[in-house]
Amino acid sequence: MAIDPIDLAHRLLGSVLESRSEQGTVRIRLSEVEAYRGQDDPASHCYRGRTPRNDVMWGPAGHLYVYFVYGMHFCANVVGLTDGVPGAVLLRAGEVLSGAELVRARRPTARGGGAVARGPAILTSALGLGREHNGMDLVDPESPVRLLAAPALPRAQIRNGPRVGVAAAVEVPWRFWIDGSPAVSTYRRGGRVRPREEVV
DNA sequence: AGATAGATGCTCT
DNA sequence: GAGCATCTATCTG
Predict the structure, then answer these.
(1) A78 inside domain
(2) What is the distance, to the nearest Å, from the Cα of residue A110 to the centroid of all Cα atoms in its chain?
(3) Looking at residue A64, what is its pLDDT?
(4) Strand C–CB A36 distance below 7 A
(5) Could you tell me if A79 and A88 are in contact, meaning their C-beta atoms sit under 8 angstroms apart?
(6) A187 in a structural domain
(7) Confidence of residue A165 (pLDDT cuts 50, 70, 90)
């Protein structure tokens, strides 16, 4: 199977991600995603070639790519690629359809009270995903984490704009979200803010 | 609303 | 050693 990350991003919007564990089941309807594609995309983890971390992004498609960032957060992607060009779609936000209580317990301080998961690290922890889920097949019915595909949304309901939180290629408009959804992360420009130089 | 600082550790150069 | 596909609390207007 081959699917371009941009097409995958469209298809993911409105789809439901289900995560089962001993603690319970959480279902989240995706409302915001962000596409990354290829070794010529400076913002992609694949920019400098294949490494142990980004290995999953080379396929197969439909698997989960989970990575650790900023020393404390995990982010989750769905792998999508064409013709050996690696890629993935970052899951940024969604509405909690079931398991809101568990979501609250997993991240008590997050805004939204368990009804929404705004922000990739919040969404990932809401689903209880970590290192051990990296590479899982989301299409396998036996998998504890599954993607329940929904009919494609009408294009008119989909908006797109610049990516969030990346220092390179910010202008690439590959962030997609459902128009009017309450579960969309607030835009923040990428890269750390440099401290002002001392004036002598 | 917007800006900022701090938390914290993996990954690659 | 530098740089992160971030979040939250705590300011300032």
Answers:
(1) yes
(2) 17
(3) 98
(4) yes
(5) yes
(6) no
(7) confident
CATH number assigned to the domain comprising residue A153: 3.10.300.10
Q: How far apart (Å, rounded) are the C-alpha atoms in residues A17 and A31? A: 11
Residue type, A65: Y
Residue A190 CB in 7 A reach of strand C: yes
| pLDDT of A16 above 60 | yes
Nucleotide nearest to A43 (CA to C1'): C5
Report, in ranges, which bases of strand C sit under 7 Å from a protein C-beta.
3-9
Count of structural domains, chain A: 1
A73, β-bridge pairs: A69
| CA-to-C1' span, A192 to C2 (A) | 12
- Give the pLDDT band of residue A191 (cuts 50, 70, 90): low
- CA A192 → CA A106, A123, A195, A198, distances in Å? 27, 22, 9, 18
pTM of the model: 0.92
Burial class (CB in 10 A: 0-12, 13-18, 19+), A38: middle
pLDDT digits (tens, 9 = 90+) for A126-153: 999 999 999 999 999 999 999 998 999 9
